[in-house]
Amino acid sequence: MLFNPAIEQLPLPQLRKLQNARLREQVAYVQARVPFYQRKFAAAGIDAATFRGLEALTKLGFTKKTDFRDNYPFGLFAVPEHEVARLHCSSGTTGKATVVGYTAHDLEIFSEVVARSLVAAGCRPGMKLQNAYGYGLFTGGLGIHYGAEKLGLTVIPVSGGSTDRQLQLLQDFRPEILCATPSYAQVLAEEIHRRGIAPEAINLRYAALGAEPWTEAIRQQVEAGLHVQATNIYGLSEILGPGISQEDVDERGTGSYLWEDHFYPEIVDRETGEPVPAGELGVLVLSTLTKKAMPILRYWTGDITNLYYDHSVKRTHVKMGPIRGRADDMLIIRGVNFFPTQVEDIISGLAHISPYYQVVATRRGSLDEVAVNVEVAESLLRELGLYAPLTDELVQQHDYLRQLQGTFAKKIKDNIGLSMRVNLLSHGQLPRSEGGKLSHVQDLREVK
Ligand code: ADP
Fold first, then answer.
1. Which atom number of ligand 1 is nearest to the Cα of residue 241?
2. DSSP code per residue over 346-404
3. What is the atom index within ligand 1 of the atom nearest the CA of 92?
4. Which of 156, 175, 272, 303 has the largest CB neighbor count within 10 A?
5. Fold of 1-326
6. Is 257 within 8 Å of 308 (Cβ atoms)?
7. Residue nearest to atom 24 of ligand 1 (CA)
8. What is the 8-class DSSP label of residue 229?
9. pLDDT of the chain along its 448 residues, tens only?
10. First to last CA, the chain
């Protein structure tokens, strides 16, 4: 089943035509209504009347997070305030929150793309969905909620956190679908195991996870622990919220369909802002094609990924690879640029290391240092009879742990080109998600 087969399978030439027409309309719409874009267009010599659509897109320059802050709170709105049906804020992972507004029409589209996404994640009308995304100003909770209702699911609006209650509801209401951040899904999987809850006590089949970067190692852990098929859902408030792209449950690991009829994606070089060759990694830039309250052209998401077409599959829309990190999560250590997710990739290839980690950057004198804190699999520690929290002294006393530490450090050096200190920890020593996003990076250097 597809939610909107006519659009999801629209042949590419027609999709391009639709995007082109919508982009021109969106450009004319903001030129008539938004002083920020009026000034920008005037400075770049752009006029909607002669704008040539997609082929001229790069002339529009970028819209950045700072533009939202400079126009706080309602300066980017294209409609009078009384036409705004809802306000949300970004969760403020990086800096001050930004405000976004939606008309009733925008909310309709929001629900449509979330409904499409949930079908791709495995949901079918009549199923029950436990929504553990935070309700409130964050777009995740309400975004998923209304899309799920539109699809005809029964929504359990539990919101994030309250692990006892989440587990109770999973057992009593027996939902088939869980929506949560991947780090919170890890917590739920772990608690089910710790409390000895039998697999039959829980009826989950699918999980749609997003709002933060995650990897195949986390997917495996969550799938095994919750007995689900877990897919990626991506979005950001500046453009809409969750449901901008979504992985299909039967095509897990091959990228997430990005709903191109409403959002036009580009990948650009993070230094030069120029388009990168097809399929290569860079910063995702998104333009809304149908928004009314707050249309945004060429938004610099800061998210690093790539785009490609996978013509052998169910839909015609472009696929987006996993987010490798945010451009502003990138650490520059002794001149080497790296993303914390590169450490995560190494973890997925190592036995006896669990997918909990934290990268900590510090500065001693003028020298940057990086430590990677990782948890050792519980089963290994049990085998070694180690029940007290691991310390470096304990690690040094156990050949196997010492070797594990050495192998990990060597892989980091070989793959990333940097020496990092590896600290092995026991299960539970690293912070867990309390229901929302979890950061894997701590940059404790004074000057960034
Ligand atoms: P904030 O920018 O304050 O975190 P948002 O809630 O709008 O506010 O978060 C959007 C950001 O969350 C995206 O730009 C991206 O960095 C991250 N994100 C969302 N979904 C995913 C996902 N599936 N994978 C990786 N990162 C994601």
1. 7
2. HHHTSTTEEEEEEEEEEEETTEEEEEEEEEEPHHHHHHTT--SPP-HHHHHH-HHHHHH
3. 3
4. 175
5. Rossmann fold (3.40.50)
6. no
7. 213
8. E
9. 999 999 999 999 999 999 999 999 999 999 999 999 999 999 999 999 999 999 999 999 999 999 998 999 999 999 999 999 999 998 665 566 789 999 999 999 999 999 999 999 999 999 999 999 999 999 999 999 999 999 999 999 999 999 999 999 999 999 999 999 999 999 999 999 999 999 999 999 999 999 998 988 899 999 999 999 999 999 999 999 999 999 999 999 999 999 999 999 999 999 999 999 999 999 999 999 999 999 999 999 999 999 999 988 899 999 999 998 887 778 888 888 888 888 888 888 889 998 899 999 998 887 889 999 999 998 999 999 998 899 999 999 999 999 999 999 999 999 988 899 999 999 999 999 999 888 888 888 865 4
10. 48
In short, whether 163's Cβ falls inside 6 Å of ligand 1 is: no
User: In sequence order, which residues have a C-beta less than 8 Å from that of residue 246 and are 6 or more positions away?
Assistant: 116, 117, 118, 120, 121, 208, 231, 232, 233, 234, 256, 257
**Domain 331-443 sits in CATH 3.30.300.30:** yes
The number of the ligand 1 atom at minimal distance from the alpha carbon of 323 is 25
**Model-level pTM?**
0.91
C-alpha–C-alpha distance, residues 31 and 391, integer Å? 61
* Ligand 1 mutation target, pool 64, 234, 305, most atoms within 8 A of CB: 234
Q: Is the CB of 213 under 6 A from ligand 1?
A: yes
Segments making up each domain of the chain, as ranges: 1-326, 331-443
Whether the CB-CB separation of 224 and 192 falls below 8 Å is answered with no
